Amino acid sequence: MAAVLILAGCASKPKAPATLPEAEGSSIQAEAAGLAPSGAERFKTIGFALYFGGGESVTAWSASILGSKGGQELRKLGGGTGAPPLVLPDALSWDGRDDSGALAPEGTYSARLTVEYGGKFKPSRTASKSFVLALSPPVPSFSPNPAQFAYVPEGAPKPVSVVVAAKGGVAKLDEWEIAVYDAAGSQVKALSGPMSAPKATWDGSIDGGGYVKTAAAYPAVLTVADEFGNVGTFRGEFSAADVPSAGPCSIETHRVGFSPMSQSVKNTLSLYVNVGSKAKLKAWQVQVSAVEKGNAVPVRTYRGSASDLPESIGWDGKDDSGRLAAEGSYFASLDLDYGKDYKPARARSRSFSLVTTAPTGSITVDPPTADLSDLGPKNPVDLTVQAKSAYAQIASWVMAAYDESGVSVAVWSANWPKNKVSWDGRTVEGGLIVPGMRYKVVAKVQDEYGNVGSLKGGLAVAGLTPPTEPSSIEASSGGLAPTGDGSHPSIAFNISAGDAESVEAWEVGIVSENNVVEKTFKGAGKQVPKRLEWDGRIDDGSFAPEGRYSAMLTLSYGATYAPALVESKRFVLDLTPPTGKITLSPSLFSPDGDGENDVETITVAGEASLGKIVGWNLTAYDPGNSPFATWKGAWLPEPIAWDGKGSDGSLVESASDYPLVLKIRDEFGNVGVAKSSLATDILALISGGGYRIRISSIVFKGYTDDYRDLPPALAARNLETLDLLAAKLKLPRFVDYKVKLEGHAVMINWDDEQKGRGEQSAILVPLSKARAEAIKAALMERGMSGDRLMTEGLGAANPIVPDSDYVNRWKNRRVEFYLMK
After folding, report:
1. What is the pLDDT of residue 379?
2. Could you give the angle at the alpha carbon of 727 between the alpha carbons of 642 and 582, nearest 5°?
3. Which residue spans within 283-357 are E strands per DSSP?
4. First-to-last C-alpha distance (Å) of the chain
5. Which residues contact 226 (CB under 8 A, 6 or more apart)?
6. Is the backbone peptide bond immediately before 636 cis, with ω within 30 degrees of 0?
7. Which of 668, 702, 673 shows the shortest CA–CA distance to 771?
8. Is residue 347 within 8 Å of 375, Cβ to Cβ?
9. pTM surpassing 0.70?
10. How confident is the model at residue 155 (pLDDT cuts 50, 70, 90)?
11. Starting at the edge strand that comes first in sequence, how are the strands of the sheet with 250-253 ordered?
12. Residues 286 and 311 sit within 8 Å (Cβ to Cβ)
């Protein structure tokens, strides 16, 4: 019979003599594989069947739950002591809690039964098989594949498959079920199976007949249970695709309005049509509608089938009856019918305007009557164009002032929204308006579509007397070069203001030859500066255009005198450095004293855009990029006859390139640079009873005798040098000479005598010998007899310059040729 769960203290381990007999075996057996307090009702506890061998002799017993780690007792299930026969239970149960009443950790456990016999039999201890305490519900998930039922115009959709995934605790996962619901919450489908088969396929059919609806979502709840009834849920969704769209469609205009009244190209409006699928298109319609009080009113309609769909439709502004539509705001709509294949599509253009009236308005002249004593830069007449158009933007205007004989004396123009000019009374010919005359002002205003309206105004003029003292502005030099060498970074202007006590405002404008004011200095009051300086920049910080300028001084005297306007002499803003050119003759320089090409003629030339060229310098650099020879002087130089010797008296190297850099300076300090390169021939220099040739320009692959496996440019240069050398040695005057090839190298360990000796013997001598042999083989490939050629490797034994000279020690890495009879 089942025993009541009793909590008791742990019994001490029984001890008995080893000679006691053993009782019949006792046992404690779990009646299930585990328990789940939150699972199915039958697994909320786990039962244990008990059997006591020699039960009539039992004096003490205990049953407990053991943890999986070290067999620690977690819960005492029952026990008792006393004189036999004791009342012994045949079953016990456990609810998953420890002695404190708290749920034990999820995991693997066992039950243990201990029995004592009061010295009649040996004590016995037995344990059940392991079982699990399962607390964690499964964590399931699923996703349809594909994500939704595909759209099918007629019939059943293609099925979707689902794969159920779940993570469990210590319990085995048992079974799953997916309940599918419609939008109203009614279940329409159920899918289920064991977790050993977690896949299912749904063909879209629903309970009661039919299939899932297009563009509908079907919520689904996945339930997964483990072997003990722990349940986990996941909310997902099935969905059915909507009727597909044929793709983007649009109707666009190439401008935001037009005017059928205009003579310009803007008198029609093109409506550009784009459809998603012309192949499936059944019918189309384009409708132009007016917008009246927020409502769309159809004006013009075009329609047709796919075969006559145009790329664009040109609207001339007329309605369906052929009459000109009213001025106003419009839009175009595009409707497309694809039958059952795609959704109907609709697109709307941006709003555009139909304009039939020209701009209207007036010209405001302030003041309407001008006194010449006040008229000038400080108190000009403001002419303001007041123009409007209901449905178009004002684009531009041209305004002119006419004298009483109808002759235009001043003209202004601008793009909108600039609508105001200030007139200081000066005419297009540079004079002043005439006192006592009335001038008519007329403006032609054009909107963005070419409609032109005419506006009118007028100005009456009084008179002024000129100042009594002269004024002047003078440039301090002939020009400036802000981007040059700093000798002429700016230009100063000396100013003399006549009747200075009466000056109310002053302005100095830097004016180009095209009468464009690039920079303005101005101020108010009697303190006219005596000196101003300009650095060539305009207000945004950039330089003004290069060219010739003058400084224009304007003095305003208010009502006392007429304005004074004086101009300086022209000066130059020079931003472009001179350009130079280097011409060389001969093309291959050979200063070896044989009478051929021993002198190089170097001719330099140059041009300057504005300033005169005043000086130059030319530098020849050796192959190590160090200055080798320099020339300089005033412009224009005579050609240079160069003997090939550098500033230190050394001669150019054989078969090398000597970069030339020419710098030319103009009178304002702009410096231009031109570059060229001088190539030297193989130089055969007289040495004792023969000749010596030294070549430092043959490049080998590092620590090898390979002169071919190099970047293409270097390899080609090596072959060219060898060709020149072979040709030189085969000249008639050298054919009777034998040639000794000496290889030389650079020592890396020059600062360590012991390492240097090792480097010389182990590396440099063999390497220089191998390289000399490689050059010998190359010369034989080019037709020279091997009997004429001898080789020797000297390593770093005979440096030209110290190996510690990092700038020039490239000269030590060379091959020397001695021609001897």
Report:
1. 85
2. 30
3. 283-292, 295-304, 312-315, 328-337, 345-348, 352-354
4. 131
5. 36, 39, 134, 137, 138, 168, 169, 171, 172, 173, 174
6. yes
7. 702
8. no
9. no
10. low
11. 250-253, 269-274, 312-315
12. no
Q: Tokens for 625?
A: 């990029």
d(CA 221, CA 229): 17
Is residue 176 within 8 Å of 223, Cβ to Cβ? yes
Q: What is the DSSP string of 654-690?
A: TT-EEEEEEEEEETTS-EEEEEEEEEE----EEETTE
Instruction: Tell me if residue 438 falls in helix, strand or coil.
Output: strand
The answer to whether the CB of 692 falls within 8 A of the CB of 817 is yes
Sign of the torsion formed by the C-alpha atoms of 405, 410, 415 and 421: negative
Q: Residue 545 and residue 514: Cα distance in Å, rounded?
A: 11
Q: How far apart are CA 449 and CA 265, in angstroms?
A: 8
Q: DSSP string covering 683-703, please?
A: --EEETTEEEEEE------TT
E strand map for 391-497: 394-402, 408-415, 420-423, 438-447, 452-461, 472-475, 479-480, 491-496
Residue 196 DSSP one-character state: T
> Using CA atoms, how far apart are residues 26 and 124, in angstroms rounded to an integer?
7
The answer to whether 816 and 799 are in contact (CB under 8 A) is: no
Q: What is the mean pLDDT of residues 569-590?
A: 93
Q: Give the C-alpha distances (Å, rounded to integers) separating 430 from 410, 426, 433, 568, 743.
A: 10, 6, 10, 16, 83
Distance CA 134, CA 110 (A): 14
Of 528, 556, 383, 526, give the one whose Cα is nearest residue 464: 556
Query: Among candidates 174, 206, 220, which has minimal Cα distance to 34?
Result: 174
What number is the average pLDDT over the span 178-197? 94
Compute CA 301 distance to the chain's CA centroid, rounded to the nearest angstrom: 47
d(CA 714, CA 723): 14
Q: Do residues 424 and 446 lie in contact, with contact meaning Cβ atoms separated by under 8 Å? A: no
Amino acid (1-letter code) at residue 138: P
Residue 203 carries which DSSP code? -
Contact predicate 450/357, CB 8 Å: no
Cβ proximity of 490 and 481 under 8 Å: no
The least confident of 106-115, 664-673, 686-695, 719-728 is 686-695
- The reported pLDDT for the residue numbered 17 is 54
Q: How big, in percent rounded to 5, are the helix, strand and coil portions of the chain?
A: 10, 45, 45
Widest Cα–Cα separation across the chain: 152
Q: What is the DSSP string of 94-116?
A: E-SB-TTSSBPPSEEEEEEEEEE
Count Cβ atoms below 10 Å from residue 151 Cβ, excluding itself.
16
Q: In Å, how far are 321, 343, 358 from 331, measured between CA atoms? A: 19, 23, 22
Buried b (16+ CB within 10 A) or exposed e, 168-203: bbbbebbbbebbbbbeeeeebbebeeebeebebebe
Q: What is the pLDDT of residues 365-383, one digit of tens each?
A: 999 888 776 777 888 999 9
Dihedral pair phi/psi, residue 724, rounded to 5° = -65, -45
Which pLDDT does position 701 carry in this prediction?
84
Residue 219 and residue 729: Cα distance in Å, rounded?
95
For the stretch 690-702, pLDDT in tens is 889 888 888 888 7
| CA 413 centroid distance within chain | 42
Give the closest residue to 256 by CA, choosing from 448, 445, 395: 448
CA dihedral of 66, 69, 71, 76, whole degrees rounded to 10 = -30
Backbone φ and ψ of 781, nearest 5°:
-60, -25
Give the residue among 78, 74, 80, 81 at the shortest CA–CA distance from 102.
74
Helix, coil or strand: residue 775 = helix
Please tell me the distance from the alpha carbon of residue 592 to that of residue 157, in angstroms, as a whole number.
94
Distance CA(638)–CA(623), nearest Å, equals 26
- DSSP structure class, residue 280: T
**CA–CA distance, 789 with 739 (Å, rounded to integer):** 5
